[in-house]
Amino acid sequence: MTRKNLDTSSGRAQVRRLGRPAAHSPGRTTTQGTAMVKSADEERTKAGNDGEREGPAGTLARGLAILDAIVDAPQPLMLGEVAALTRLDQSTTLRLLRTLEDSGYVVRLADSKRYAPSPKGLLPLPLMHPINQLRRESHSVLIELARNLRETVVLVLYLSTERMVTDIAQAPGSLSPYYNTWLQGPLHGSGSGKALLLSLDPEQRAAVLGPEPYKVYTPQTIVDRAELDEDLRVSALRGYVVAHDEHHVGLTAIAANIPTWNNGHVGCLVVTGHSRDMDEARIAGIGEELVRVAKLMPYQLGSLRSVAHVVGK
């Protein structure tokens, strides 16, 4: 599946191999500035290159590429289709498929000789895992927020310096983005990225940003460290960050961090919308409402404390 910059969560995707981004699938396009992920071809080329390595590391890379292809496919796949998608020969593909089947990640449909992801492959987390509990508990909050603001609302968790989409809510007429679970959009140019930067101390911030000038995405992208620091200083005072046309022209993201009980931040709430609808008053109204809701979440959502422990906050 090909998914561009806005990735939405699925029950499976939330924790499936948090150590790397999920692969994409052809045909689906996205538009939000908070997620920039590699194309399917790039991912599979990398997997193929990794697969050329000898030993367990190469075997693991090939197996994960096969699992990605099957999980992301819109329908069960034949052996030849899996081999073509992963750029592996059929004998290697068959051997690894059997290993995945024995491990419980893939099932072979006897009536069609096709391969599909198993329940374990689709939904690896137990239903009562804290992250799944948080999704259930927070969904009504997100739906109400999206309805009141008439915009798309996204719940993002922080895993160290990475960002993971946990849930998404939309209102009639709002954007219809598709978020990949692992957000890869620029930290200096996306709503969730700026919110994460705001949660870090200056030393951590410098480490994750790397050397300046930062990459340019639009004429509005902040590429200078001093300018970004000033933008974050203002954001800290008002309680929310804004990425206005900074990753994609025409799209604006506003985000507020969700506090923890030890003065940290477990994640953020993000609103995305068309820039044409986002004048200063509208942005301020959305930002203030996000701050209000985010501050209440630790008291409303009992699972948030457990999730904070899961993600190390």
TrEMBL record:
Gene3D superfamilies the UniProt entry points to: 3.30.450.40, Winged helix-like DNA-binding domain superfamily/Winged helix DNA-binding domain
Every HTH iclR-type domain range: 57-119
Q: Which GO terms describe its molecular function?
A: DNA binding; DNA-binding transcription factor activity
IclR-ED domain: from which residue to which, for each copy?
121-303
Give a single Pfam family match: IclR_C
Q: What Gene Ontology terms for biological process does this UniProt record contain?
A: negative regulation of DNA-templated transcription
Q: Which domain of life is it from?
A: Bacteria
For bias kind Basic and acidic residues, which ranges apply? 39-55
Which controlled-vocabulary keywords does the entry list? DNA-binding, Transcription, Transcription regulation
- Region spans: Disordered: 1-57
Question: What is this protein identified as?
Answer: IclR family transcriptional regulator
The organism is Azospirillum palustre
